[in-house]
Amino acid sequence: MCGYADSAVAAEPAPGALNALRPFDNQVPVLAMQPVDDDVLAHQTGKYAGASMISGFVLNLVSQWQLPNGALAIGQGTLSVVTNTANQLDTQISTFAKVQSGTGAPSGANPNAVAAGGQSVSVNGISQITQVAGNNNAGTNSAVIDFNASPQTGAPPPGSTSNPTAFASDPSGTVKAGVTFGGNGLSVTLQTPAGLATQSIAPNSAQQAGAIAQLLQVAGNRQIVSNQLQLLLQTRTMSSATLRQMGVLQALQSSALLRR
């Protein structure tokens, strides 16, 4: 499993963290670190998950925003791809959007606070942006990739549909949740009086590489917000003959590099 998370709470590194690799005593020689070019790393071999090993995956995006007055917005989009007995891919999608109205008490929004600019950031790969203008807020962007023999996301929440879009709003239209599958991508958006939370997956195009983006913008106080992305990869069991073939191929490739 691997993952990356970004939150609105900052922390400084522990004292001496940069020197954590110091030897325990003076008798142990210090290991020197040397930068390596990309062309050298490109020829390195090791264990990895090859394309032939992946037989399916489940992609799950969930965004949630809770306001201090009890209002709640949730958006969830799920894509499941599995290989059936005929060695063909079966695809299913699920969308869910829910908005719960508040009690009318203060929402915690601050009209004098501004959190903006994150929407204009364009990054190839994965980007996580948190912009906070306020106090006592909790905001988290998290992305996790997990290798599992049989990935399961559990039962979809009540109210989920197989439609490519789902939208919900409170009666006043100030709290909104939306989920959209389209253009070979997926987006989840929450809008509240105190800010914005979005997640998006954009495919490769002629103009740019694919991108996964998580954005939190909080302009208020006592807001609880989270963006969660989970990718579960299903790996197929490889036979001993296939493993031997891969080992021979890797050995031949390594010996060819050594002769250069």
Distance between the termini: 36 Å
Q: What is the percentage of strand-forming residues?
A: 35-45%
Strand order of the largest sheet: 1-6-12-2-3-4
Mean pLDDT: 80
**N-to-C series of helices and strands:** EHEEEEEEEEEEEH
Number of strands: 12
Radius of gyration: 23 Å
Which stretches are poorly predicted, pLDDT < 50 over at least 5 residues? 9-26
* Tally of helical runs: 2
Class derived from helix and strand content: mainly beta
The major beta sheet can be summarized as: 6 strands, mixed
Name the overall outline. Answer: globular
Helix content: under 10%
Task: Please summarize what this structure is.
The chain has 260 residues and is mainly beta.
Q: Helix and strand layout, with pairings?
A:
Blueprint: E1 2-7, H1 38-41, E2 54-66, E3 72-83, E4 89-100, E5 125-133, E6 138-148, E7 165-169, E8 176-182, E9 185-192, E10 195-202, E11 211-219, E12 224-235, H2 240-258
Parallel strand pairs: 5-11, 6-12
Antiparallel strand pairs: 1-6, 2-3, 2-12, 3-4, 7-8, 8-9, 9-10, 10-11
Could you explain the architecture of this structure?
The chain has two helices and twelve strands; from the N terminus they run βαβββββββββββα. It has helices spanning 38-41, 240-258, and strands at 2-7, 54-66, 72-83, 89-100, 125-133, 138-148, 165-169, 176-182, 185-192, 195-202, 211-219, 224-235. It has 260 residues and is mainly beta. The protein has a six-stranded mixed β-sheet, with no helix packed on it.
What key phrases describe this protein's structure?
single chain, six-stranded mixed sheet, mainly beta, 260 residues
